[in-house]
Amino acid sequence: MAVETKDTPATGRLLIRNIGLLLTGDLDRPVAEADCLLIEDGAIAGFAAEAADAEIDAQGCAVAPGLIDSHCHPVFGDWTPRQNQIGWIEMNVNGGVSSFLSAGEVHLPGRPKDAEGVKALAIVAQRCFANFRAAGAKVIAGAPVPELDFERDFYDGLKAAGIRHIGEIGLGTVAKGSDAARVTGWCRELGIETIMHTGGPSIAGSHHVTADDVLEAQPDVVSHINGGPTSIPHDDIRLLCREAKGALEVVHNGNEKSALVALEGALAEGRLADLLIGTDAPAGSGVQPNGMLRMVTLLASLGGLPAAQAWCCGSGNVARRRGLRQGIVAPGRPADLVFMDRPGGSEGKDVCEAMAMGNIPGIGAVMIDGRMRTGRSRSTPPAARLPVQ
User: Fold this and answer.
1) What is the pLDDT of residue 1?
2) Which residues have CB under 8 Å from 270's CB, separation 6+?
3) Burial 219-236 (b: 16+ CB within 10 A, else e)
4) Does 229 sit behind a cis peptide bond, omega within 30 degrees of 0 on the bond before it?
5) 272 CB burial (10 A radius; 0-12, 13-18, 19+)
6) What is the distance between the alpha carbons of residues 122 and 111, in angstroms, rounded to a whole number?
7) What angle is formed at CA 326 by the lines to CA 321 and CA 331, rounded to 5 degrees?
8) 286 falls in which pLDDT band (50, 70, 90)?
9) Where are the beta strands (DSSP E) in the chain?
10) pLDDT digits over 206-249, tens only?
């Protein structure tokens, strides 16, 4: 009987040369003064043009770290029952996303809500996605949603099973401040990351979560501060930017005007490094393979944030606030890279200028762990320049 093998990084040395613009994903230095990248055994080795087993000619296009969707809802495999759609993860890879963080496997039909079933679902989702990688994507799944009747021993069991974060507080019966604070307190002691729904109800069974609820609970991530999809009042967004200790996440399936308010609030409080981007997909509005690109472009165009910094909000910021190695172009980090350029027909000399005027990038290829996973994207407009292998 055939045995499915786990996806592994590329082996050998690979040189990427003729890079026109190198985005790092690092807010401290969002653009690197280099035109080469050396990759060894699937990880970034340096920026020098050294001897290698193979080469890629970037032909002047930009190279950037793969985007990390800070907020999505996978179930099993590359299928979502929310829209009964197959291939949504692969199409998101075509949209420049190399990693996905589950906010809870809540779209599973008939999902269990008892402690034993919730824990079992989280473990199965985590283990399945550790072995199954559609188009090479890294899906960090296994995010159990808290319920009121779960005591501390439930979270002890999660920690023992290797679960790294819980699903959205507010999608189950735990929603209000005091109940949520009890859960975040237990998880903080155990080293389990907490995320919390913000805004009006989303799916059936979820709850309205206010800024006061979030401030009482103080989760590690304020999930979709711009609504999922219904936003809290803008003054409350500004309040959370001032007083919430967790990362401030904006999503594509939220309120776009509120996302810009969150950007303004984060900048006013000197908290741009805390601003994360996700999609909250699959959602009622569908699956958008370019959702992350659209959010980066929103911040860079209507938000006025330099495009190289906007890219950090969907890559290095997520990596640092959520404990991931990918998302930053630096030696020792995984070679999860996007080759992109301004789309054909767009103004601007490069992809950053195109995003600043509101045009999403054209993606020429996506690499994960040093392996090319896509050629020219099936979901973006064609890039003006393409890498040649």
Assistant:
1) 34
2) none
3) bbbbbbbbbbbbbbebeb
4) yes
5) middle
6) 11
7) 115
8) confident
9) 13-17, 21-23, 31-32, 37-40, 43-46, 54-57, 62-65, 67-72, 79-80, 85-86, 97-102, 138-140, 195-196, 221-222, 247-251, 275-278, 337-341, 362-368, 371-374
10) 789 999 999 999 999 999 999 999 999 999 999 999 999 999 99
Cα dihedral value 179, 190, 164, 8, nearest 10 = 180
Look up the pTM and report it. 0.97
Rounded Cα gap, residues 129 and 127, in angstroms: 6
Return d(Cα 287, Cα 284) in angstroms, integer.
Answer: 9
Residues 383, 377: Cα–Cα separation, whole Å = 9
C-alpha distances (whole Å) from 82 to each of 151, 261, 388 are 30, 29, 38
> Domains, the chain, ranges and CATH?
13-64+328-374 (2.30.40.10), 67-289 (3.20.20.140)
Q: What whole-number distance in Å separates Cα of residue 23 and Cα of residue 37?
A: 12
Residue 329, exposed/middle/buried by CB under 10 A (0-12, 13-18, 19+)?
A: buried
DSSP letter at 68 equals E
pLDDT score of 204: 73
pLDDT at 2 over 60: no
Tokens matching residue 187: 């998880």
In whole angstroms, how large is the CA radius of gyration of the chain?
A: 20
The torsion angle over the Cα atoms of residues 176, 178, 183 and 184, rounded to 10 degrees, is 100
DSSP state for residue 230 in the 8-state scheme:
S
Span 100-132, pLDDT tens digits: 999 999 999 999 999 999 999 999 999 999 999
Cβ contacts of 336 within 8 Å, gap of 6 or more? 65, 66, 98, 99, 138, 326, 327, 367, 368, 369
